[in-house]
Task: inverse folding
């Protein structure tokens, strides 16, 4: 007989088009729903029930939270504690920094990163004040804090007094979707055509499943993520401009929605003189991202700072040539399977782009190491670490 743990998961912060922490919450909910030792209760916004019933068909879903964030944060403190008591859950998980501060139910809180302390200039002032306080409260009052990397756990200890236990639970990757070869011949071409950037050719030298070229034979580099300050896309734009003359056919694809501070990206593109060679796609749907990773000469993720760096792991799972930053959580995850450059170093990044466009990608052994690392980082494995955190919380 399996000892099932009744737990609640707050999914009210997940937007309609989830990235980063939103994808983490969605994938974790789905993985927990599959576990025989978890009796999951999903706490969602009032008009968001159909999505979560599809994600967690074997779990309970309660749609009670307000839609607007200020009201939702107030509801979390005033109404959620009595709901948890009424539902008789053994542990509650706040997967996005916050928790009901006066609930009698032990809480697990995920702290994704400490950027609100490390570099508050990357965020809106109102969010800095909100999340600095939320992180301090979680560090003091949560029974267990979950961090996605050891780097984040170390930073939490440096910035906050941590009274509860800390569990490091790496994110996972959907290896059925992020894989080195397209599932159906021609499907990557169809996906890329939806972005208006052409389609890939058949197998070639640019990547594990594609040629690193657009439909007309143009080689391209790709960044996938929200265009916001800490992703350091302006440095990528400047690095591309430095090598563009040596590779007159090359293009840079920036695939992601506009975040706070996107004007810095727009200014960098305008100043680069490469506007006609830089393709902005806006937000891309989940099923298009693997096609981009498989088809590019290199996936470039030059973030100045990350709590984990999920796109880096997803790129590795596709067998892509990954260029990312050293001294970061991405280095912790990728080990020696990626090309690492110092954060913010436009010269080093341009040299890495130049090498990739010259065809100097990882050899087969190094690419295989990346695939092996990604294969170990499943969402099922991540859910197992979370279950350890939940059971630890109930004993606190």
Result:
């Amino acid at each position: 007989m399996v000892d099932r743990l009744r737990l609640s998961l707050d999914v009210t912060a997940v937007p309609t088009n989830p990235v980063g922490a939103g994808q983490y919450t969605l994938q974790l909910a789905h993985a927990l729903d599959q576990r025989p030792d978890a009796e999951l209760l999903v706490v969602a916004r009032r008009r968001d029930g159909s999505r979560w019933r599809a994600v967690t068909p074997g779990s309970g879903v309660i749609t009670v939270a307000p839609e607007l964030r200020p009201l939702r944060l107030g509801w979390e403190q005033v109404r959620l504690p009595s709901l948890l008591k009424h539902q008789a859950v053994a542990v509650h998980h706040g997967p996005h920094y916050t928790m009901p501060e006066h609930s009698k139910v032990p809480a697990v809180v995920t702290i994704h990163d400490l950027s609100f302390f490390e570099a508050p200039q990357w965020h809106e002032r109102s969010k800095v004040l909100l999340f600095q306080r939320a992180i301090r409260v979680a560090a003091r009052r949560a029974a267990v804090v979950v961090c996605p990397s050891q780097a984040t756990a170390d930073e939490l200890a440096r910035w906050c007094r941590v009274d509860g236990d800390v569990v490091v639970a790496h994110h996972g990757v959907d290896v059925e979707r992020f894989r080195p070869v397209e599932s159906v011949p021609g499907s990557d071409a169809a996906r890329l055509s939806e972005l208006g950037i052409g389609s890939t050719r058949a197998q070639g030298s640019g990547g594990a499943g594609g040629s690193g070229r657009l439909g007309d034979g143009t080689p391209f580099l790709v960044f996938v993520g929200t265009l916001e300050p800490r992703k350091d896309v302006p440095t990528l734009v400047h690095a591309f401009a430095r090598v563009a003359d040596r590779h007159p056919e090359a293009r840079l694809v920036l695939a992601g929605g506009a975040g706070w501070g996107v004007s810095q990206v727009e200014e960098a593109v305008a100043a680069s003189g490469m506007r006609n060679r830089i393709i902005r796609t806006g937000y891309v749907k989940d099923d298009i991202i693997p096609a981009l990773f498989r088809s590019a000469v290199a996936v470039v993720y030059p973030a100045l700072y990350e709590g984990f760096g999920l796109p880096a792991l997803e790129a590795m799972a596709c067998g892509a040539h990954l260029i990312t930053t050293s001294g970061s959580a991405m280095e912790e995850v990728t080990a020696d399977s990626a090309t690492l450059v110092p954060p913010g170093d436009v010269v080093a990044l341009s040299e890495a782009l130049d090498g990739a466009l010259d065809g100097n990608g990882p050899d087969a052994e190094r690419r295989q190491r990346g695939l092996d690392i990604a294969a170990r980082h499943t969402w099922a494995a991540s859910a197992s670490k979370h279950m350890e955190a939940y059971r630890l919380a109930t004993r606190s």
